[in-house]
């Protein structure tokens, strides 16, 4: 039993040992487990580790006229990766709408799937050339300016659940080609300019137009009242 236990420990170390031997090439980064916490990177060479059945995300800000190119490779022997139950490592690119870009494979790219037992020692994938269009669609891909995401995934086909937490070190190089161009903008809706409020002008009716002006009518009205008062006083004196 003791010999079997020692043999099992030795096998585990043989599998896990190479996975811990990370490359010293590239800037160390920690990929995000989702789009929301993906680190925003620029051009350069980076290194990270990934677990079996894990997804990691990295963001790259692109302007109109630019294109993202990614080359990646694992830093340990493929047989060690297979021993973890991992069939292959894959790359994918998502547009700013966080939708997988169906046109991410450009001429000259290798397959985006690294068969760990095959001859493809390096992965390569590119984004589309970013267009200056505005995003006017409700859904789907949108190759306009914004943050593009590199997704790295390991497909696990082993019989251990949960999968072994053996780190697979990998290195990837990002280059951004093309001259940044301004994006087109929608034609702004013109702002209405407030106009001066017209002062309402009172219009005379036909009857008013035929009669005397208001000031004259007021004078006659007062005069009529005075005449009535004088006439009343005269009547009272007569009655006495």
UniProtKB/TrEMBL annotation:
Segments crossing the lipid bilayer: 215-234
Keyword annotations: Membrane, Signal, Transmembrane, Transmembrane helix
Signal peptide: 1-21
Chain residue ranges for the region called Disordered: 100-120, 177-212
Biased composition, class Low complexity, residue ranges: 182-200
Bias kind Polar residues: ranges: 108-117
UniProt keyword Membrane, yes or no: yes
Domain of life (superkingdom): Bacteria
Protein name, UniProt field: Gram-positive cocci surface proteins LPxTG domain-containing protein
